[in-house]
Design brief:
Blueprint: E1 15-16, E2 24-26, H1 30-38, E3 44-51, E4 55-60, H2 63-71, E5 76-77, H3 84-87, H4 103-111, H5 117-121, H6 124-135, E6 143-145, H7 146-151, H8 153-162, H9 170-181, H10 186-209, H11 215-219, E7 223-224, E8 227-228, H12 231-262, H13 264-272, H14 277-287, E9 292-297, E10 301-303, E11 306-308, E12 313-317, H15 318-321, H16 355-372, E13 376-378, E14 386-388, E15 393-394, E16 398-401
Parallel strand pairs: 1-3, 4-12
Antiparallel strand pairs: 2-14, 3-4, 5-9, 6-16, 7-8, 9-12, 10-11, 13-16, 14-15
InterPro entries: Cyt_P450, Cyt_P450_B, Cyt_P450_CS, Cyt_P450_sf
Protein name: Cytochrome P450
Organism: Sphingobium cupriresistens LL01
């Protein structure tokens, strides 16, 4: 973006690239090298390439300010913020994440019991079996590429189970996910969106005729304002599960195990106290928050003497907010007893619907890996690549251990 192209409400001194979202891989650890430097800068700045398609927008770094924006649904909306529907010339909503109150409230109230801690806890047996299934494939080899062999297929297998879809479809879903989330090629993004929509609508029609106990069948029975959801609304919810269930949990698992592989004392502490995984996960979620979501300003708002205009986009960077030194003492230091109130799952009415399921997947992955494998490290000499985007993740993590 050229300086002359900037809107007149943007101070020139606040314009800079947003180093967490260039959609490229680097061997520089963003959590130890990039995020601390961003926290030395202004509380709000104008990123030149924040959004898909290298579009600009505001970046807010302080946890306190992020919480205020999360809570202010009158001034900061979510409707259409991902651009997936608009990208194919349509206007459906991703449910509930792209809804604003009062519609959001009605749909979210219908979904909350489906994703309650109790309901998600009932899935523990199935989730644990899936984890063991993948670990059994490499536990006796003395090595694995943890991202390829576990961090990606494990949560995707859970997504397919929840929606009652065949495990054989995994690679197809991963290919579509790459088109939607890992490329700036807008034509690929359009093709991927259309393909996922067609597939899910077919699955929804099948469940309408042949209902089961999967989440598609359950959604077809949910109500909003006294009526059942339409097939398009059920699709919007399934699309939300697709985006959240494939990429974000995979990213978290990879980042957490990178930490354990490079911090043997922390790995040993969890081996000595497996029950401590429940608390440790919260600190790892804080320290390695991965997701940047977006808001669209609906009316002019002044923040730190900067005017955010109606129509401006705002990046809600949980990696910044959860590593804010004004909110967390020594944020780069991992302390399993910290019990942090982090922003990894967002905050306020739009707090992540699948947070309870994600926690169970992360806890079970950690418990089962540590139970099955001896002490593991990153393969000597390998520089771990971090992919920087609105979902930060490690692209490859070769682990080795004594056979």
């Amino acid at each position: 973006m050229l300086v002359n192209d900037l809107p007149d409400n943007v101070p020139r001194e606040l314009v800079m690239p947003f180093a967490l979202t260039p959609r490229r891989a680097t061997t520089v650890n963003p959590y130890t090298d990039i995020i601390p430097k961003l926290h030395e800068g202004p509380p709000i700045f104008y990123g030149t390439d924040v959004f898909p398609g290298r579009q600009p927008g505001w970046v807010v770094r302080r946890a306190e300010d992020l919480r205020k924006i999360y809570a202010d649904t009158d001034s900061f909306g979510k409707r259409g913020n991902t651009g997936f529907a608009a990208g194919i010339g349509e206007s459906w909503d991703i449910i509930p994440t792209e809804l604003d109150p009062p519609r959001h409230t009605g749909f979210r109230n219908a979904l909350n019991p489906v994703f309650s801690p109790k309901r998600m806890g009932e899935l523990d047996g199935k989730v644990r079996l899936r984890a063991r299934e993948y670990i059994d494939k490499f536990k006796d080899k003395g090595e694995c590429d943890f991202v390829r062999d576990f961090a990606i297929p494990f949560p995707v297998s859970i997504f397919l189970d929840l929606l009652g879809l065949p495990q054989e479809e995994m690679q197809q879903f991963l290919d579509w996910e790459f088109s939607l989330l890992h490329t700036d090629d807008m034509e690929d993004r359009v093709k991927g969106t259309r393909a996922v929509k067609a597939y899910l609508l077919n699955a929804i029609e099948d469940r309408r005729k042949n209902p089961g106990d999967d989440l598609i069948s359950i959604a077809l029975q949910l109500e909003y304002e006294g009526r059942q959801w339409t097939p398009e609304e059920v699709f919007g919810h399934c699309f939300n599960l697709y985006l959240g269930g494939l990429d974000t949990v995979s990213a978290n698992i990879g980042l957490h195990f990178h930490h354990l592989a490079t911090h043997p004392a922390d790995q040993d502490a969890l081996r000595q106290n497996p029950a401590g995984a429940t608390v440790a996960i919260e600190e790892l979620l804080r320290a390695y928050a991965a997701v940047t979501t977006f808001r669209i300003c609906t009316k002019d708002v002044v923040l730190h003497d900067v005017t955010i205009r109606a129509g401006d986009r705002v990046a809600m960077s949980t990696p910044l907010g959860s590593n804010d030194p004004e909110a967390f003492e020594a944020p780069t230091h991992i302390r399993f007893d910290r019990r942090p109130s982090h922003l990894t799952f967002g905050y306020g009415p739009h707090r992540c619907l699948g947070a309870h399921l994600a926690r169970r997947e992360l806890q079970i992955a950690m418990q089962e890996m540590l139970a099955a494998l001896p002490a593991f490290t990153v393969q000597p000499g390998f520089d771990v690549p971090f992919y920087l985007s609105n979902i930060i993740h490690v692209e490859s993590l070769p682990l080795v251990w004594a056979r």
